[in-house]
């Protein structure tokens, strides 16, 4: 699955699933713009490793929930790369709360980072992809966008919105621009740390495969959708979820 000569922007790519995606893309031959929010040192580490595969890699700090910062990031993209072939909307966070205790600020932040951030990046990428009459957009959703989860109604709502947005955009932009989503289940990243020492082991028992995913496993699904092997996929939600959601 080669991406030689392609340019990709991955949001939230300094760690976790985003980091794994950026490095898989670089290994496949794509030049990468690594977006990060606060972890500059980690973003620089990803950049250095990506460049070791012989591709161009740059980092850019932007809060994806701010449309002005997103526009400035795409101006930087234009200057440094001159084009975009692949957008991966990965930036996000997780923080649980019972609905009766949830603050306006937490609800708003969750929706803005995940759903608004996806929209803002798609809007800028599509402007450029339409000129080329080609492009691929891959949105990172979650199994919770289909299942829901107690104390994560805000997160589930944001991810469910991403699923619907993905399908709508796929219809709007076909046949030139392909839009799909990847909806992972629990994955071994820093996002699990606040949930406690035994959370991952307990959570894994809910899955037919009895384990959580590694970031690299999720990145392989994203790489597939970005490659020519997925040229007949649009409006689809791939589910690397260990069998916790079964479709079809």
Plain-language structure description:
There is one protein chain. The chain is of the alpha/beta class and 248 residues long. It has one domain (7-238): NAD(P)-binding Rossmann-like Domain (Rossmann fold, 3-Layer(aba) Sandwich). Helix content is 44%, strand content 13%. It contains eight helices and seven strands. It has helices at 16-27, 40-51, 67-80, 104-132, 144-147, 153-173, 199-204, 215-226, and strands at 7-10, 31-36, 57-61, 86-89, 135-140, 177-182, 237-238. It has a seven-stranded parallel sheet with strand order 3-2-1-4-5-6-7, with helices on both faces. Helix 4 (104-132) links the parallel strand 4 (86-89) and strand 5 (135-140). Helix 1 crosses helix 8 (215-226). It is globular and about 45 Å long. It starts with 6 loop residues before the first strand and ends in a 10-residue tail after the last strand. The model has no long low-confidence stretch (mean pLDDT 96).
Total E-strand runs: 7
The SSE string, one letter per element, is: EHEHEHEHEHHEHHE
**Weakly predicted, low-confidence segments:** none
How many separate helices?
Answer: 8
CATH fold-level label? Rossmann fold
Biggest sheet: strands, sense, closure? 7 strands, parallel
Name of the CATH architecture? 3-Layer(aba) Sandwich
Which range best describes the helical content: under 10%, 10-25%, 25-40%, 40-55%, 55-70% or over 70%?
40-55%
CATH superfamily: NAD(P)-binding Rossmann-like Domain
